[in-house]
Amino acid sequence: MTTCLYPDALRPIDEAGLENLSVKGKANPESIVTLKAKTICEGQFRNLTYIRNLEPYVIDEPPHLLGEDTAPNPSEALLAALGACLSVGIHANATARGIALRKLELALEGDINVTAVWGVGDLSADKRLGFTAIRVTIDVDGDAPPETLQDIVAHANKWSPVANTLRNAVAVDVLSN
Predict the structure, then answer these.
(1) CA quadruple 16, 53, 55, 46: dihedral positive or negative?
(2) Which among 57, 74, 56 has a CA at the least distance from the CA of 65?
(3) What is the C-alpha to C-alpha distance for residues 3 and 153, in angstroms, rounded to an integer?
(4) CA distances from 114 to 34, 66, 84, 123, 132 (A)
(5) Cα→Cα distances 171→30, 31, 64, 118, 167, Å
(6) Of all residues in the chain, what percent carry a pLDDT higher than 70?
(7) 19-27: long-range pairs with CB below 8 Å, 24+
(8) Would you state the pLDDT for residue 6?
(9) What is the DSSP track for 66-111?
C-alpha cells in the first residue's frame, strides 16, 4: 500500500502545462507523432520491451500458458494500457474543468478465447481472435456533482487514443527480415 502525498486530492496535473498542450493541439490539428518500442525475447515467453530511455517493460505468460508468471501477459498489458489511457484522460479533463479528484480507480476485465494458442491450437476458420468484450468500471470522486464526473468519464472515453484503437480498425503490418 502506498502513502498518499495529497490526502485531499490526487497529485495534481500542471494546469499551465495542460493548457499549453491544448493550445498546441488546437494550433496543429493534423500533427502525427510516431511512437516506437523494441521488444526482445529473453526466452520462453518472457519479453522485454524498450520504450524511450525507460527500464524495460516486461511481458510474460502465466504458468497455465507455459510462462514463468513474472509479469502481465500481452492481453493483460493491453487492459492496463486502456485503463491508464482512460485514467489520464479523466484526470486531464477534470483538471481542465478546475475539478480536483480525490479518487480515480478503474477496474478492467476482458473476455478472450485463447484456444487458438498463438496459432498452434484450435484454428477453426470462424475463430474470433482477440478480446470479444472489455468492461471498465470507474470509481471516481472529486469536487463536482456525480453527473459532471460521469460527463468527464464519457468525454475521456470518447477521446481516448487507446479506447479508439480498440474500437476502430487499425492497419497493422508485420514484416520479417
Answers:
(1) positive
(2) 74
(3) 26
(4) 31, 13, 24, 11, 11
(5) 19, 19, 31, 20, 13
(6) 96
(7) 19/96, 22/96
(8) 53
(9) TS--SS--HHHHHHHHHHHHHHHHHHHHHHHTT--EEEEEEEEEEE
73: pLDDT confidence band, cut at 50, 70 and 90? very high
CA distance 22 to 96: 10
* Residue 44 grid cell: 520462453
DSSP string, 134-149: EEEEEEEEESS-HHHH
Are 89 and 156 within 8 A, CB to CB?
yes
Give Dmax over CA atoms of the chain in angstroms. 55
Q: Nine-digit cell at 158?
A: 470518447
